[in-house]
Amino acid sequence: NAGVTQTPKFRVLKTGQSMTLLCAQDMNHEYMYWYRQDPGMGLRLIHYSVGEGTTAKGEVPDGYNVSRLKKQNFLLGLESAAPSQTSVYFCASRPGTHGYTFGSGTRLTVV
Amino acid sequence: GESVGLHLPTLSVQEGDNSIINCAYSNSASDYFIWYKQESGKGPQFIIDIRSNMDKRQGQRVTVLLNKTVKHLSLQIAATQPGDSAVYFCAEKATSYDKVIFGPGTSLSVIP
């Protein structure tokens, strides 16, 4: 039981490049979330999903897209990376009740 | 809009002392509250939670107090240890919402 696994752990992108961050959970959780965390700030919700095949926007969705084709996976895409997207990205999942289980994060730098 | 905030952004305590981290929330519809601990370079980790039908809940060395009258939440850590040094986030959720709202975090430093 690995919990929530994020790949990759680190990535450096050039402005304008695209990439996909993968989040996988093996707990059969319905809900999954992508957050970004910037220095001195809390967690800001980018997108989330309440079940397989569903996605919804969070607080800061611009510049990102997501897909939840399989219940266990939640993908976060950056179509054209910008320096403002330099951040640490956290994925989380939860069952119908109770709190989140977080992944260990992906540190993304856009130069 | 709703928000969750912390009174103190940083807190330094002596090893062995008790720590109290405070949190204010503004959404009166919130009925579930959670405390997370985030160590450097790691993801947030669940510590303890409490539902709105309770005023107090205890875990191992931690206690969460909820005052719904003034919309205030606190985390008490007994006999604080160096391993408790981290950023602590409070979070709130309403039953009707699909997502949890996080506060900005408090950095706890334990002085040996």
Would you give an account of this structure?
- The complex is a heterodimer of chains A (111) and B (112).
- Chain A is mainly β.
- Chain A contains no helices and eleven strands.
- In chain A, the strands form two sheets. In chain A, strands 2, 4, 5, 6, 9, 10 and 11 form a seven-stranded mixed β-sheet that branches. A four-stranded antiparallel β-sheet of chain A has the order 1-3-8-7, with no helix packed on it.
- In chain A, 37% of the residues are buried.
- The model of chain A has no long low-confidence stretch (mean pLDDT 93).
- In chain B, strand 4 (30-38) and strand 5 (45-51) form a beta hairpin.
- Chain B is globular.
- The mean pLDDT of chain B is 89.
- By secondary structure, chain B is mainly β.
- Helix content of chain B is 0%, strand content 55%.
- Chain B has no helices and eleven strands.
- Chain A binds chain B through residues 4, 31, 33, 41-43, 45, 48, 50, 56, 58, 90, 92, 98-105, and chain B through 32, 34, 36, 41-46, 49, 89, 91, 98-100, 102-105.
